[in-house]
Amino acid sequence: MTRARQDRLLGLLVRDGDWLTAAALADGLGVTPRSIRSYVTAINARVPGSVAVESGPLGYRAGPEAPVALRAGGATDAGTPRDRLHTLVRALLDEDDGIDVFETADALHVSPATLDADLARVRGLLGGTELTLERSASRARLRGTEMAQRRLLSRLAHDEMDAGSFDLEALRRTLGEGSVGAHAFGPFKTELVTELNALGYFVNEFGIADVVMHIAIAADRVASHRGLDAVGGDASPAQAEVAAILGRLVERHVGVQLGAGDLQHLSTIVLTRIVAPGAAAPADHARERLEPEVEAAVREVVEQAAAEFLVDIAHEDFILRLALHVQNLRHRAREQAWSRNPLTRSLKSTYPMIFEVAVFIASGLQHRLGIPLLDDEIAYIAMHVGGRLERSRRADQLLTATIVCPGYYELHELLRSSVDRSLGQAIEVVGVETRVDPDWASIDTDLVLTTIDPSISGDRFVRIQPFLTDADVDRVQTAAARIRRSRRLARLRTELERYFVPGAFVRGLDADAGEEAVIRRLGAPLVAEGVIDEDYVERTIERERLSSTAFTDALAVPHALGMTATRTAIAVGIADPSIPWGEGRVQVVAVVAFSESDRGAFQTVFEQFVEVFSERDSVQRIVRRATDFPGFLDELVAVIDG
């Protein structure tokens, strides 16, 4: 647990990128500030002579060697329980007749009782692998198919890799120091992606990294004479094409000749990690690869999501691409070969509404196609949704601007051209004022970009040079961002004051109660108010099981799929210290009941509310000072108003 918390601490510092106090870090990890100091000492010990975590009057922040410390920990902490567990699993996988418990305990320099505890932890890893751990006297052995054993190795490799990213050093630790060709998989991956692109595929780099891990495991097992038996049936032309590439590259880079069974299995995995055919492939050709059941299910769910959330995603090209992805996902689900996504956490915290649309789609697909979806797989759907929404953004999201530039030859025309070229994606110039004494009060655009000093002041006036400089561009972008934020938060303040229920405020959530108990406690006053019924509470719990609603390191927003409340209302709970939620910890839980008549509020509550609670200083201010509901509302409004 200590090692895991050290890694979690380092991950928080790397992701935040700024100074964090020991108290804030302690809240995030559910430990004391004193523990934080000891964790920092241990982390810095992983990189002797360097600094992984910097210390100062403002607290701690990630140092230049933080990424190295994340990767190096497994190698330097050879005696940690996690490293010992992985060593034990590798020994069990390598020995058909099992291991002698007492001899293994001596080799690992632990007592037999400690090794027995480690074997119990091994049993905990076996869920879903179709493997069993047998114990007879002093011998312990794993029983199960070769495919099941590889699935376990894959789980260990993912456990070693930070946030699911591809890490050759972590892969080497998983397979063992003597594994075949671990150093060769960097060039191997580069050539594999190049050849797949040459065949006309768009390659998902996150997915293809996962594929390389499976190929490394296969090469290591084949080198130990543990290849897969060939499966009956003819391979498709695409499978045969990819299998030929894999066989040639593995033999060239790793020196291992894969058999027919391994090539068939790996080519299937490769093809299910390919997001879509290349851009040159016609839609009809792509649709030929689709199972009608999958296309119909995706179309139905996407149309429902578009209507439920009022988002513009029901487009034919989006449905086709997502359906191809879901079909690949269906094949991965059958093999239990899930794809990791290193962007999951950032997608959830930065684009909560997009992630929520993805959860809705995932829930519908699970119901129609029977596909169990993990957070990483939901994140891939969110990437599809976000891509579609980015392409269909409305022009009215741009801020309007007026340029004030007294006329002198074509100076104002050159300035407008420079503004359009440098800032056209952020603002839209709707007027140019060439008078030296304009009526400043009558200019009603969002921004006023002026080469002369205005006679009135305000945040929307930005002084620029007649010949636009990089510093001018930065000032305009900063002002535009400030205006957008103030508008978002102003909408949030107006709506939140209507939605909070004074009697549904709880301070002091029980850290040991668990998510379901907290949801029921916060849902109870909303039921009493007649806002929701018990069924809504149960559906909120079901939604939480699909994917954690901890959208930031401090805030969880449990809610049900389906806007069936009589009115939109929010119940708030404060936890000080933080409580476990999903894979992290939170300090604020807001159970939100949405009404169908307030669909427009959904985006405001999700995106802007989450934005407020993504700022660590704001969270700490609210948590520390909000002793009752009026105090909570006062502090929240103060934070919003800046």
UniProtKB/TrEMBL annotation:
<dbReference type="Pfam" id="PF00359">
    <property type="entry name" value="PTS_EIIA_2"/>
</dbReference>
<feature type="domain" description="PRD">
    <location>
        <begin position="289"/>
        <end position="395"/>
    </location>
</feature>
<dbReference type="Pfam" id="PF00874">
    <property type="entry name" value="PRD"/>
</dbReference>
<protein>
    <submittedName>
        <fullName>BglG family transcription antiterminator</fullName>
    </submittedName>
</protein>
<dbReference type="InterPro" id="IPR050661">
    <property type="entry name" value="BglG_antiterminators"/>
</dbReference>
<keyword id="KW-0677">Repeat</keyword>
<dbReference type="InterPro" id="IPR016152">
    <property type="entry name" value="PTrfase/Anion_transptr"/>
</dbReference>
<dbReference type="InterPro" id="IPR036634">
    <property type="entry name" value="PRD_sf"/>
</dbReference>
<dbReference type="InterPro" id="IPR036388">
    <property type="entry name" value="WH-like_DNA-bd_sf"/>
</dbReference>
<feature type="domain" description="PTS EIIA type-2">
    <location>
        <begin position="498"/>
        <end position="642"/>
    </location>
</feature>
<dbReference type="InterPro" id="IPR002178">
    <property type="entry name" value="PTS_EIIA_type-2_dom"/>
</dbReference>
<dbReference type="InterPro" id="IPR011608">
    <property type="entry name" value="PRD"/>
</dbReference>
